Amino acid sequence: MDVAQTPSRSPRSTGGRFVFGLLVVLAVGVAGYAVVVSSLNKFPPPVGANAAGLATLVLHATSAAVALLIGPFQFLPRIRARHRRLHRWMGRIYCLACLVGGVAGAALAWGTTSGPVARYGFGGLAILWLACTSLAWASAVSADFAKHRMWMIRSFALTLAAVTLRIYLPLSMVAGIPFETAYPIIAWIAWVPNLAVAEWWLRRTPRLRV
What we know:
globular, 210 residues, single chain
C-alpha cells in the first residue's frame, strides 16, 4: 500500500475521540464521587438540609451515577452494531435510572432551601430529564430509531448536568462567590447550555435524523 492509499485519521475523528474520552473520564469520576458522597452522607450542609430528606438525596445521587456510567457507552456504534442485546439492556437500565433520578430530583427541587430560583431551575431540569428520557424510550419501543437517537442525545445532555454542576461549584468558590449566590444560578447553567449545545449539534448533523 503506497502513501496515497494509507488511511489516516481525520482531525474531526481524532477530536471526536478526545471529546468522548474526556466525557467518559468526567462521567465516571462524577459518578464515583456521587456514590462516595451518598455512602458517607457528606452532602454540603445546604444540600443536606433539603426538605425531601436524606433518602431522596441518596436515591437521586445513586440513580444519576448509574445513568452517568452507562450513558456514554450507549453512543458507541460498535456496541450497537455487534452487541444489540447488551445495548438494549443497558438502555433499559439507563432509562430506569434517569426516570428514578428525575422523580427524586423533582422532589429535591421542591424541597430545596436555596430559594425559588434554584427550585425552578432544578425543577425544570427534572421535568425535561423525565420527558426526554421517556420519549427516547417510547421511540425505541416503536422502532423509530432516528427519533430515539435524538431524544437520547438530549437526555444524556441533561444527565451531564451532574458533571457541569460539579465544575461550576468549585469555580464559583475559586471566584469568591458565596454558595448562597452561586447555587441558584448554577441550578440553571448546569443544564441549559448542555441542552442548547445538544440542539445545536442535532441541527448541524442531519444524518442523525435519518
